[in-house]
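Could you join me in thinking about how sequence relates to backbone shape in a protein? Label the sequence line and the structure token line clearly, so we can match residues to local backbone shapes. Once you have written the record down, we can walk along the chain together.
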Amino acid sequence: AGQWHILRYHILPNVRGTLGTYAGVLFSYAIINIGALGFLGLTGDSGNPDWGLILAEGRFVLRTAPWVSIASGLAIVFTVLSINTLIDTLSR
């Protein structure tokens, strides 16, 4: 059998679940890191909306308007959880 046949029919089916899980974890990690960098103000232009930037700006109005920080924090949490749930479902 040729190299492409071995790769397609023997190696890729056995590696698909692992690669999908790894890609999902990397994507979730990237979302969390972008949020953290946005919170620190290191993402670039402050005119672009960013969950981390919204969290950082919500710090100053936490006593009067806590939903600003809560909404962006929950958006990050639910996005990461949904990605992990989707990848877990697809890898089975």
In short: The mean pLDDT is 91. The two ends are 29 Å apart (CA to CA). The longest helix spans residues 3-40. The CA atoms of residues 26 and 34 lie 12 Å apart.
